[in-house]
Amino acid sequence: MKENLLAAKGRVDKLIAMALEEDIGSGDITTAGILTGREKGGAKAVAKSEMVVAGIDVFRETFLLLDGHITFTAHVEDGERIRPGAIMGELQGTLLSILMAERVALNFLQRMCGIATLTSRLVEAVAGTGVKILHTRKTVPGLRALDTYAVRVAGGYSHRAGLFDGVLLKENHIVAAGGIAEAVFHARRRMPHTVKVEVETENLAEVEQALSAGVELIMLDNMSMEETRQAVKLVAGRALLEASGNVTLANIREIAATGVHYISVGALTHSVTAADISLRVECRDE
To answer: Hey, where are the domains in the chain?
Structure first.
């Protein structure tokens, strides 16, 4: 596995094992009802739509965790764009194991490819602007490592991995602290000087307050296109700007053209459409 998935292999294997246990439970009564467990054969994973690949190693690991004797040959790499009909990989081994792991393996691969494909489209839509597309923390609980990896494979970037690696003062934090100035003051007093502070703002008045507090990043949350342009003019390079909220393929280029530095897109991971991939058993060894 590449990038952070390699470092997190133990955690990813744990996720796969939990998913297999959830699906198989005490046993696959359908497959066990028609096979003895000794039958061997092969199967191919086939792309049924155009997509950007992500998670091919997770797909392989799902089968291998269930049955280490299965062999898998990948024909694609993560980050590669493929067309309908492309053979993504081939399996050889015990048909009982292949059929038992099929759904879980496809669930991971289809979701990750779906995330990567949407990310790629958004990245392409802002090409040449210098704007970076960010994922958010709106991921399926437990799957963040896989969801965010799929974003990065397709050219997107991480906002933050979790609450532990970045200060983002959102509306509720600001209310709880008594205001933007108070929230920033306390965050700076308790955080290392190397940690940047970002403040979520909903209007130009709050942008001014964030600037006065000296933050490094300002999020423009659900602002109109005109408000975003005004915010860029107001900030005038004194802080980095992130646009967030109601971002679509139809409007992302216009948002990027306002002069913001980042655009965060929750839809990358919270409402992704799974890629269309099938697994077909093509032979049974005699």
So the answer is: 3-123+273-284, 126-270
Count the alpha carbons within 13 Å of 51 in the hemisphere toward its beta carbon: 31
User: Which residues make Cβ contacts (< 8 Å) with residue 136, sequence separation at least 6?
Assistant: 159, 244, 264, 265, 266, 268, 269, 270
Catalytic residue among 170, 188, 229, 253: 170
Q: Which helix (H) or strand (E) holds 252?
A: helix 252-256
DSSP structural state of residue 249: T
User: In the prediction, which pLDDT does 1 show?
Assistant: 45
Is residue 28 within 8 Å of 70, Cβ to Cβ? no
pLDDT digits (tens, 9 = 90+) for 105-157: 999 999 999 999 999 999 999 999 999 999 999 999 999 999 999 999 999 99
Number of H helices, E strands in the chain: 12, 12
Question: Binning pLDDT at 50, 70 and 90, where does residue 9 land?
Answer: confident
Q: In what order do the strands lie in the sheet with 277-284?
A: 71-74, 87-94, 40-47, 277-284
Is 103 catalytic? The answer is: yes
Taking residues 205-233, report their average pLDDT. Answer: 97
Give the pLDDT confidence score for residue 147 in this predicted structure.
96
Asked if residues 67 and 43 have their Cβ atoms less than 8 Å apart, the reply is no
Report DSSP state, residue 162. Answer: S
Active-site residue among 138, 144, 196, 229? 138
Rounded to 5°, the CA angle 178-190-184 comes to: 35
CA dist 68 to 65, 180, 254, Å? 6, 55, 50
Whether residue 138 lies in the annotated active site: yes
CB–CB of 263/243 below 8 Å? yes
Distance (Å, rounded) from C-alpha 125 to C-alpha 130? 11
Domain 3-123+273-284 has CATH 3.20.20.30: no
The CATH H-level (homologous superfamily) assignment of domain 126-270 is: Aldolase class I (3.20.20.70)
Catalytic site residue 170? yes
